[in-house]
Amino acid sequence: MMDKARELSSLYKNALLDDVIPFWDTYSPDEVNGGYYTCLQRDGRVFDTDKFVWLQGRQAWTYSMLYRNVANNESWIQQAKLGVDFLKKFGMDGDGNFYFSLTREGAPLVQPYNIFSDCFAAMAFSQYGLAAGDEESLDLAKRTFSNILSRQENPKGKYNKTYPGTRPLKGFSLPMILSNLCLELEPLLEPDLVEETLAQCKHEVMEVFLDREQLLVYENLYPDGGKSDSFEGRLINPGHGIEAMWFMMDLALRTDDRELIKTAVDVTISLIEYGWDPEFEGIVYFKDVKGYPPQQLEWDQKLWWVHLETLVALAKGYRLTGDKRCAEWFLRIHDYCWKHFADPVYGEWFGYLDRRGNPLLTLKGGKWKGCFHVPRAMYQVWKTLEQVG
After folding, report:
1. Neighbour count for residue 297 (Cβ, 10 Å)
2. What top-level class would CATH report for the domain 1-30+171-389?
3. pLDDT tens sequence across 5-33
4. CA distance 218 to 236
5. How confident is the model at residue 100 (pLDDT cuts 50, 70, 90)?
6. CA pair distance 316, 1, nearest whole angstrom
7. Rounded Cα–Cα distance for residues 376 and 309 (Å)
8. Any idea where the domains of the chain sit in the sequence?
């Protein structure tokens, strides 16, 4: 792995800058209404014009991040502005909560039930504000973050369809995302708030949702940390847990917490081994911890983001610890990804494979897949492997 690190770093850099970003540059911007089209066919043609707010935020973040960290490319900051201006104008209701989806012109379609719209809007405003020196965006990022913290006990609020009190479960998603979001916004926030939020996130991820004996991360638990013997309570999403582990590695680097780094690596390997499909390779989407049939019919699909986040976690784990397991799994998953997800004809990556590794849908973007996981992972792998050795 160490011998190949420089070669692999160049591969991911070139894929990002010469393939993935040019694909979104070409087909995604809506120059008429602002924002981005994300529902793109294999060849980039738009097949639906609805705009999903968290994908708008993610794409604006991606371009802003590249502008700050790779090069002051004027077209990148303009692309970021296209999304940020659209979100400022149309993304929020009167209380500052972000809708889930909008029409191409910006009219609300789906109510602000999903707090992740707010999370990715805050990331976009923060990164763009820092890139462009835009105080309005920085202020919006701080206000949105404060709003997220105020909603974290009941993220869906009045849009929660679960009957109150019968089976109260808390989800892993929010503390996981908050750990990354807080690091993103750290330059804008009071130090005490950063430390308090990160400590809480670390506790939730590593002490509550992580089962230390199984080395598996649960998706849903009772408020007291107890396990529910139900579809939701038995659910394991290997990719989710693995993504959280590289967030934990980033968090650990702030204080050189070697124990946290080692645990995050061990959990990453455990989740890969747990989710790995020994017959057809790749990591499955969902599993039931007791081996029962999962309620998600897509449980055995192989998803782009799961494998990309795994590559990031393994690259970081190897750089930080030199653990040979990280190197071995990285090369194995790297080979799987470039064989099955990368599109050699039209560029970018497929998102959804069947269990055997064939594309189920040939779209390059949709309601859930946008300009985020592929470019972010390629950037992270490029920069991480550049530091190996």
Report:
1. 9
2. mainly alpha
3. 999 999 999 999 999 999 999 999 999 99
4. 5
5. very high
6. 13
7. 9
8. 1-30+171-389, 50-167
Q: Could you give the CA distance from residue 203 to residue 248 in angstroms, rounded to a whole number? A: 11
Residue 72 has a CB neighbour count (10 Å cut-off) of 10
CA 114, 116, 119, 124 torsion: positive or negative? Answer: negative
State how far the Cα of 64 lies from the Cα of 126, in Å rounded to an integer. Answer: 9
Within the chain, what is the greatest distance between any pair of CA atoms? 56
Query: Six-digit token pair at 76?
Result: 């990148």
pLDDT at 156 over 90: no
Neighbours of 256 (CB within 10 A): 8
Distance of alpha carbon 308 from alpha carbon 63, whole angstroms: 19
Q: Is the pLDDT of residue 174 over 80?
A: yes
**Confidence band for 159, pLDDT divided at 50, 70 and 90:** confident
What are residue 58's phi and psi, to 5 degrees?
A: -65, -40
Residue 328 contacts residue 336 (beta carbons within 8 Å): no
pLDDT, tens digit (0-9, with 9 covering 90-100), for 246-299: 999 999 999 999 999 999 999 999 999 999 999 999 999 999 999 999 999 999
Residue 224: which residues within 8 A CB-CB, separation 6 or more? none
Nearest CA-CA partner of 242 in 315, 184, 160, 182: 315
- C-alpha distances out from residue 100 to 54, 56, 216, 229, Å: 7, 10, 30, 31
Which residues, 6 or more positions from 50, have their beta carbon under 8 angstroms from its beta carbon? 39, 101, 102, 103, 104, 109, 367
One DSSP character per residue, 321-388 reads H--HHHHHHHHHHHHHHHHHTB-TTT-SB--EE-TTS-EEE--SB-SS--SSHHHHHHHHHHHHHHT-
Letter string b/e over residues 353-379, b meaning 16 or more CB atoms within 10 A of that residue's CB: bebeeebeeebbbbeebbbbbbbbbbb
pTM of the model: 0.97
Amino acid (one-letter) located at 346: Y
pLDDT digits (tens, 9 = 90+) for 227-255: 999 999 999 999 999 999 999 999 999 99
Residue 35 backbone zone (phi > 0: left; psi -120 to 50: alpha; other: beta): left
